[in-house]
Amino acid sequence: MQALIRRLTESYGPSGSEDQIRDVVRGEIRGLADYVTIDPLGNLIAVVKKKAKSGKKIMLAAHLDEVGFVVSHIDAQGFARVQLFGGVNPLACVGSRVRFADGRLGVIGIEARRDDLTKVPAVNELYIDVGATNAADCPLRLGDAAGFWRPMELAGRRLIAKSLDDRIGVAILIETLRSLKQTPHEVAFVFSVQEEVGTRGAGAAAFGLEADVGLAVDVTRAGDTPNGPRMEVRLGGGPAIKVRDARMIADPRVRELLEQRAREAGLATQREVLEGGSTDAAAMQIARGGMPAGAIAVPTRYIHTPSEMVELGDVQACVALLTRFLQRPIEL
Ligand code: CO
Ligand code: ZN
């Protein structure tokens, strides 16, 4: 699974520019589903058809896009100013490397003559340097988008990579599709676009699919760092089952069924009570007439920086839990 996670996290795909990562995922799932479509917004949807009359229609979602930058201005010296796609952590920007669609690298710099050098950088104080010497020489155009660039690295049982949010969810969906030998349900694996700019892809996909139950697989914050966020989630504690986040209250029946399936399989889980941020499940829950929805979250440190960190055991447990959930009856 590590090689898969490497291919996914090292792919390019800021919000709205998901073509490259979508092609990678399409290659990984070839031959595994009954059919695969790309909807008008760009969501990649792989469907495993229903095998039993009692089966439900399940929508799973993991987002293809990563947080990023879009060029909004190029100055006379050839430095690019940017706007953000998603909640990029400004403290993680200075000195970071970014990559554009054509593979071009850039370095993020910051105006050195700021009023207060101790302040958190504002986006308009940052710029991207691609090695140009003047505007005419700058290969960038307005609207070009970039994501962070960093290769995946291993630290013991933990992985460090850019865009584990949410390529780790994408990897979990792919591995689940691979290990799902039989299921009574119709399962739509949705690899969604534009999550980081407001769960746009999943909302449209949920409306179109009209599923009975929805589950997002995404990352959540971990509280196990020095003076970390006050939440119980920790790396190595197993899949985090969502209770609430900033935009949704998970359906308690979905949450309890996930916890029950985990207990049956002897898998440890944690409960996620998240104050800020959300997932595709928030959009799925209120699509059309509404649907029972929940989320499985991978405990993750340093979210929206170029060095996000997860533990492999948690990731494997997410695959085991999701596979079991889909193989068993779903009565809410
Ligand atoms: Co995110
Ligand atoms: Zn995410």
Q: Mean pLDDT, rounded to whole units?
A: 96
Number of strands: 17
Number of domains: 2
CATH topology group of the largest domain: Aminopeptidase
Question: What Rg do the Cα atoms give?
Answer: 20 Å
Main sheet characteristics: 8 strands, mixed
| N-to-C order of helices and strands | HHEEEEEEEEEEEHEHEEHEHEEH
Spans of at least 5 consecutive residues whose pLDDT stays below 50 are none
Query: Which structural class do you get from the secondary structure elements?
Result: alpha+beta
In terms of DSSP E residues, the strand content is 25-35%
Strand order in the largest sheet = 1-2-12-3-13-16-14-15
Shape: globular
Second rung of CATH, namely the architecture of the largest domain: 3-Layer(aba) Sandwich
What is the helix content?
A: 10-25%
CATH level-four homologous superfamily name of the largest domain: Zn peptidases
**Number of helical elements:** 7
Bound molecules: cobalt (II) ion, zinc ion
CATH class of the largest domain: Alpha Beta
Protein model, in words:
With 332 residues, this protein is α+β, with helices and mostly antiparallel strands. The protein folds into 2 domains: 2-66 and 151-327, Zn peptidases (Aminopeptidase, 3-Layer(aba) Sandwich); 68-148, Elongation Factor Tu (Ef-tu), domain 3 (Beta Barrel). 24% of the residues lie in helices and 27% in strands. It is built from 7 helices and 17 strands. α5 (252-264) crosses α7. The mean pLDDT is 96. Zinc ion binds at residues 63, 165-166, 195, 218-219.
